[in-house]
């Protein structure tokens, strides 16, 4: 990126990098949707158990995924500097930390029943959730390793393989889960354990395919990623830990905000909680696009930073923000015009509460339109900051914005002022707006731009 590119060229380069990541993110969501659909047909208690189990898995995953997130910006910067040895060392230490963290989560999964009961789950649901997690929990290690490899391949700008592997995983998961949950074609009926086996198998298979590509493909084999894998590099390990742990806590703070919102929505009513879940599914789909563009921004900014290309950093940032904002505007228009139709896609017309759910959901989609741009800008700012390996200050911005602003405002407007479900989502919008403002200010006024401009 040393030669100045036009914004048009920057946009095409960002899209070429980001679109396969977006597709991979959407395919990853499809994995969870297939499990939900199949278990919804199998039984209410098994469905509830796997929803609880996957939510528990996800919360712990988000924290550990920080190591993989850190690798993306670190490797992109090392490539910009032409330091291929550092590429290998930082990726390898990211994998080391992911394995250690994954092993530490196993006891929590293994003894999850008493923990879930303590947090108010019914005993039979908690037992089924533990049955699920005792198998699926081992998938934490390959899941985190996949995150590291995706970051590594993204930094190399080899993202198409991620898309095809994830799409393949969707079909493998569907076939395995269908057969093992219901006991078809001579296989035993395993229920939630069948879903867990399918999940673990898919996580392991995804890791093996990406690892094989990383080791053998012409674009990446020169880095000899797995050669003498057991050899430590303590300096690189400390660097990944220092950047990755705050990145993980940032993700945890954000995901925790939405978990808290779901809990508070349950206090308002069942219909409101159902509408909240549907509105969240819709907004999550658009968020995957912004997240993919954010990842592309991390790579583009990281490469330019490694090359010492100040103008390239700025151009990459402006381009990514512009693309994300443009898509955000389209989503705002869609949410405003077709809000009731979007909610109705998730509702069985035979449900006696369908009209109320659609009405509440349509109101929440108005609020989703309000925070769509804020959500897009905060995740984009995080991507830009990770490109310059800045995660500690963003962590504190996220914690304060979400937990000291977003949650209190949600509670106050929803319950103290009596605005109910829309008031709760207004609090989410406020928290996201504060985070977006300060994170964007952090990147554009940060020392990496100011120091280089002075030089």
Descriptive terms for the model:
455 residues, mainly alpha, 2 domains, 84% helix, globular
Describe the structure.
This protein has 455 residues and is mostly helical. The protein has 2 domains: 20-232, no CATH class; 246-455, no CATH class. The protein is built from 17 helices and no strands. It has helices spanning 7-42, 44-64, 66-81, 84-110, 112-118, 123-136, 140-155, 160-182, 192-216, 234-268, 270-307, 310-337, 339-344, 354-387, 392-416, 420-444, 447-454. Helix 1 runs parallel beside helix 8 (160-182), helix 10 runs parallel beside helix 15 and helix 14 runs parallel beside helix 16. The longest helix has 38 residues, at 270-307. The chain is globular.
Estimate the global geometry from the Cα principal axes: globular
Mean pLDDT: 88
Number of strands: 0
- C-alpha termini separation: 19 Å
């Amino acid at each position: 990126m040393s030669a100045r590119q036009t914004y048009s060229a920057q946009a095409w380069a960002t899209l070429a990098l980001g679109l396969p990541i977006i597709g991979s993110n959407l395919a990853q969501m499809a994995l969870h949707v297939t499990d939900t659909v199949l278990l919804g047909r199998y039984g209410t208690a098994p469905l509830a158990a796997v929803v609880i189990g996957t939510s528990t898995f996800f919360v712990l995953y988000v924290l550990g995924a920080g190591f993989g997130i850190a690798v993306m910006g670190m490797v992109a910067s090392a490539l910009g500097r032409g330091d291929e040895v550092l590429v290998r060392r930082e990726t390898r230490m990211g994998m080391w930390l992911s394995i250690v963290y994954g092993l530490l989560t196993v006891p929590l999964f293994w003894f999850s029943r008493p923990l879930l009961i303590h947090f108010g789950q019914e005993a039979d649901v908690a037992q089924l959730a533990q049955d699920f997690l005792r198998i699926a929990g081992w998938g934490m290690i390959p899941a985190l390793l996949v995150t590291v490899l995706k970051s590594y391949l993204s930094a190399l700008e080899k993202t198409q393989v991620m898309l095809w592997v994830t799409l393949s995983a969707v079909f493998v998961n569907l076939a395995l889960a269908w057969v093992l949950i219901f006991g078809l074609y001579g296989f035993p009926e395993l229920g939630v354990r069948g879903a867990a086996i399918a999940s673990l198998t898919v996580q392991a298979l995804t890791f093996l395919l990406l690892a094989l590509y990383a080791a053998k493909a012409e674009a990446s084999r020169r880095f000899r990623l797995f050669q003498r894998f057991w050899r430590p590099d303590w300096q690189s390990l400390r660097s990944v830990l220092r950047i990755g742990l705050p990145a993980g806590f940032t993700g945890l703070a954000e995901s925790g905000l939405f978990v808290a919102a779901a809990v508070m929505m349950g206090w308002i009513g069942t219909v409101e909680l159902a509408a909240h879940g549907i509105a969240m599914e819709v907004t999550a789909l658009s968020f995957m696009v912004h997240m993919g563009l954010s990842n592309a921004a991390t790579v583009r900014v990281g490469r330019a930073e490694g090359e010492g290309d100040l103008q390239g950093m700025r151009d990459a940032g402006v381009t990514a923000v512009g693309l994300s904002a443009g898509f955000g505007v389209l989503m705002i228009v869609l949410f405003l015009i077709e809000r009731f139709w979007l909610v109705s896609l998730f509702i069985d017309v035979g449900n006696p509460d369908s009209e109320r759910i659609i009405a509440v959901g349509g109101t929440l989609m108005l609020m989703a339109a309000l925070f769509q741009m804020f959500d897009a800008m905060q995740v984009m700012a995080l991507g830009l900051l990770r490109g310059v390996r800045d995660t500690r200050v963003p962590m504190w911005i996220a914690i304060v914005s979400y937990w000291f602003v977003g949650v209190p405002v949600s509670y106050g407007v929803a319950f103290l002022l009596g605005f109910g479900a829309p008031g709760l989502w207004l609090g989410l919008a406020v928290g996201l707006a504060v985070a977006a403002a300060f994170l964007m200010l952090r990147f554009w006024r940060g020392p990496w731009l100011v120091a280089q401009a002075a030089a």
